[in-house]
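Readers of this paper often ask what the protein records in our data store actually look like. Such a record has a labelled line for the sequence and another for the backbone structure tokens. Nothing more is needed to write down the fold, since each code stands for a local backbone conformation. The record that follows is passed on verbatim for readers who wish to inspect the format.
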Amino acid sequence: MRFAVDVGGTFTDLISWDLCSGEVRSNKTLTMIEPSQGVLDVIRKERLPLGDVNLFVHGTTLGINAVLEKKGASTGLITTKGFRDVIEIARMDRPDMYNILYQKPPTLVPRHLRMEVDERINARGGVLRPLERAGVADAIHWFRRHKVQAVAVCLLHSYANPVHEEEIGEIFAKEAPEIYVTLSHRILREYSEYERTMSAVMNSYIQPKVQDYLDHLQENLQNEGFSQRFLLLRSSGGAMSFTEARESPIFTLMSGPAGGVLGASRLSAATGLQNLITADGGGTSFDVSLIVKGQPRVVSETMIDGYKLLLPIMDIRSIGAGGGSIASIDAGGALQVGPESAGGNPGPICYGRGGKQPTVTDAALCMGLLDPKYFLGGEMQLNYESASAAINSKIAEPLGLDTRRASSGIFAIVETKMAGAIREITVEKGFDPRDFALLAFGGSGPFFACNLARKCEIGKVVIPVAPANFSAMGMLLSDLVHHYSRTMILDLKAATAGQIDSIFRELESLGRSALDSDGISAERREFHRSIDMRYFGQGGHSVTVPLPAGTSTAEQRQGLEATFHQMHESTYGHRTDEPVQIVHFRLQAVGRVENPDFRPLRSGGEDASHAIKQQRDVYWRELDRVVPFPVYDRAKLLAGNSLTGPAIVEEATATSVLGPGDQLTVGAYGDLIIEIAQPSGGVRNGSSTD
């Protein structure tokens, strides 16, 4: 057996796969204050025989939560003499230039904990001045005096030659083994001094917390009988070993949302839907990404809470909007929703676990969109009276509305925020959302999907099987992946085949060693090359161009230049006649693992009336009145069944809401494929093959 667990802000989701029978099962439970307890709870709830499990894949947002909540370790920094203020100076830009109240995010390392050492290596890796070891000893003494838990080491040009960073690492291992140490070249070997330093600092900042969590979780799993492989999902979509995750937790920052994007890419291949907007709606956040021509978008840098980092990561936009988002009246008397969330403890008021602030889930219950007796398949009874009373007293009465209209207002605000996130990752990136289908998953994604598609003029919505556990399914489908990079600035036309091939041979040697450690056989290995290119003298606007495997040739380099010009114009809107440079060499070493196949659903006719379980009155704000909605049991729908909205499709862990005129057809694999009725009455199909 294999299983995967995704720990979210509100729920912890599990997917298991029995290799003998082919059966895939799902389960979920509320996330606990101690996240590892939620993992054990959902395993016990599923009655998973851990002694029969040979692989566990895990996704967690523990690291990014530590950053967002500023609850990381006391962190120090060692850098080259004269460069202690790099992380504070940053790029001297102003991301929100028209906001006169803008403030830079606080530095994760205060100035008195940034220590300098005397050493110098040039940009080509030559040693100009050896490391003064006495300065390292002084830094260790200072850090101990200030009770520093973790230290980041980032020396100037260590990407070209890491010898001095390695020397510092050896000194710490001998003299201060209790301090967690991150050497920047082990995170990445690229230039960009601020981003490289910030990435090393971020890794140190979260390492003690993540490492303690992983060790505690592994110990508990072993006590329950699990002794096989334990993998963590990378932010870029592949899996990494438990050991690597302990040492480099920065690569797990977005591991939870990345699972959903990875699952979407596999669904794209199975269904032929090449262009997808992924809409992962949970209890705390709403995460959006793109699948373009069947492939997820992976970028080499990202912004996390105002900090710019260099690491391969899925291009995902996250906002604080979900079922647990708290609704309130601000000082100006306006209705606000989120980004604060009630989470799973205490959760929305209707959970009956002590929640005091009305949430989106409470509003959905008051509008009639949720069945109070069928939440989590009937495991949890929702309290309509308490939710209604809270919305009435805290929202409706101050705004002069009745409870249903106030609840509808909460929905309108959260949907507007979600639509904004979709436009940010499509329109603002040069993509037309009308050329995509919307893939909605997570506990609340199907809830909002049809209305979001209408707002963004998207013609098609797809809701996968077990949408609430879809991110965990993506984790279960993940291959083992290792990323490597080197900075080497070369003129494209002057670069020789020997120079290019020698760098990739070095990177591939590292990849083979890592896959050897992972136990991946030769026939299951793949190596994907790419290079970052730019116009001569250009700053931070390089373009990553895929490179075919094999020996580099002059003809191949000509093709690369033409591809670069095309990609640069597509990305930035222009091209020039300036010479083209190679900046970074990148390699992705992939170990393919066996995956479960998507199982076709049993076929039926068009008539879906056999799946109707009841009829429920729902307040529909577009019509400003109560509308009778037939409620369908998704478990009874068959491939080929069709129905027209207004309608609700219920399953144990998710609810899909169709507006008037929306047309649903059940796909061959059980996916719900919905053609959206636009306000004008027309329907535009999302692109499925282009």
About this structure: The radius of gyration is 26 Å. DSSP finds 16 helices and 33 strands in the chain. Confidence is low (pLDDT under 50) at residues 681-690. The longest strand covers residues 480-491.
